[in-house]
Amino acid sequence: MPAVTADTLTLPRLPELPAATTAWRPVRKVVQARKSLEGEGFQVRRPFPGVDLALADPFLLLDHMGAVEYGPGEAKGAPWHPHRGFETVTYMIDGAFEHQDSTGGGGLIKDGATQWMTAGSGVLHSELPPQDLVAKGGLFHGVQLWVNLPKAAKWTPPRYQDIKAHDTKLLSSDDGGALVRVIAGDVAGYQGPGMTYTPITYLHATVAPGARLAFPWPEDFNAMVYVLSGRGVVGAEQRPLEEGQLAVFGHGKALTMQAATEWDVLVLGGLPLNEPVARYGPFVMNTRQEILDAIEDFQAGRLGGTHVPHVGSADEEL
Ligand code: MN
Question: What's the gap in Å between 13 CA and the centre of ligand 1?
């Protein structure tokens, strides 16, 4: 089962924005996702962090997992590893991922559901394909987004939000040709279910060939579009954007895009934290000392659990 679908003609429509007089955000940069291996060796495409992480603030990382058709025995995941200081947001479009953590939280994420894990002061968790997917193989397609926590919330206790596919706020574009699933934040006054510490907006849209998708966007948020599949154009300047590419937008009041083929995009942005970032693998804090403390706490077992974890890769040096 893919991400939630609906007849767009039955959904609330986004308001039509006048093409000539709207302050459309221009495309500032297009980034090609690079391939990286995670966990036990499953491939992800990672549009950021790239050369300029500040552009993505308050987001830290976006991993596009698949789409891949696993054969029997091929599916892999990320066994026990720690996190501290941010949130992992896992959205599964096809297939499933099973999460477990040292506080007893977790669950099976599938069919358009999102699991929002606030690591806060620290957890150990494992992210694995369920046994039947490993045994039989099958389609696997999802996304993991890392959202930074403001300095004041880094020590918050760990928390889960399980967002089912049908909890997302479903909308249609003004021309009825795009299905918008708001996972968190606000689009033209329509609110998604995700509760966030940092103001953000995060949505997944499926845009029919030729359809246009446009909506207002807060002026103080950054704005990015990542293509999961298909091709289209973004901005009033109609910059081409295809699978595996990320567009970063400049200033303005609204976003516009149009599909060339059937096009699946993530649109995300938030209020930049503008705080110092110290990151090492699975820990994202404000200072180098806090990273050293996190490694020490992890090694001493103070992040919980009695499993046999290892510190994962996820880039970046101390
Ligand atoms: Mn993880």
Answer: 36
